[in-house]
Amino acid sequence: MIKKIFKDQPEIFEFNEQSKKVAEKIVTNYPEGKQQSAVMALLYVAQRQNNNWIPLAAMKYIAKFLDMPYIKVYEVATFYTMYNLAPVGQYYFQVCTTTPCMLRGAYKLVDVCKKKISENENEISKDGKMSWIEVECLGACVNAPMVQINDDYFEDLDEKKLENLIELIKQNKTIKPGSYRGRKSSEPEHNRITLMESKNA
Predict the structure, then answer these.
(1) For the chain, is the Cβ count within 10 Å smaller at the N or the C terminus?
(2) What is the pLDDT along the chain (201 residues), one digit of tens a residue?
(3) pTM score > 0.70 for this model?
(4) Pairing label, strands 91-96, 130-135
(5) Rounded distance between C-alpha atoms, residue 71 and residue 33, angstroms
(6) For residues 56 and 60, what is the distance between their CA atoms, to the nearest angstrom?
(7) Distance between alpha carbon 110 and the CA centroid of its chain, in Å?
(8) Helix or strand run (H / E) with residue 57
């Protein structure tokens, strides 16, 4: 991972006009002297601007922007898994392998990613479109197993359904987030059986 962090690094980074406006507005949410608390939000702004990953130059830029030591920005960026510190694919697959997803077949989804995207985590596919990583709980345990692709959740998956999603992406077709067993939100598959009015009431 360390090698990947220091690979493909641009020499300079700065917020574009739109990102700068967003960053300045975020900073105003904090009281005088507490602007450094905006570091997490600004890292996310930088990631959004830079094709979903944060180069070292962006961390240094944010450090100056918030008047804080660069190492503190680096510590935050390397601690949280939501920050990507190396280039990722246009479609970034985060496969949850925490216990509920694992019990429902998450590692079969990992095998699909290895087969259809790249053999290794954080390795961009040959067509440049996709990369994948194993992550801890994404909070959709009821609809396990699930995968987050960019900002969207794809739930109730199995190998075939994930393979179909990957093929749709390869064909530049739209993929639809949500349950792939037809559930709405996290409702039971066979309708609710609790907290319902009694027919005899």
Answers:
(1) C
(2) 444 555 678 889 999 999 999 999 999 999 999 999 999 999 999 999 999 999 999 999 999 999 999 999 999 999 988 899 999 999 999 999 999 999 999 999 999 999 999 999 999 999 999 999 999 999 999 999 999 999 999 999 999 999 999 999 999 999 999 999 888 777 666 666 666 665 555
(3) yes
(4) parallel
(5) 19
(6) 6
(7) 16
(8) helix 56-65
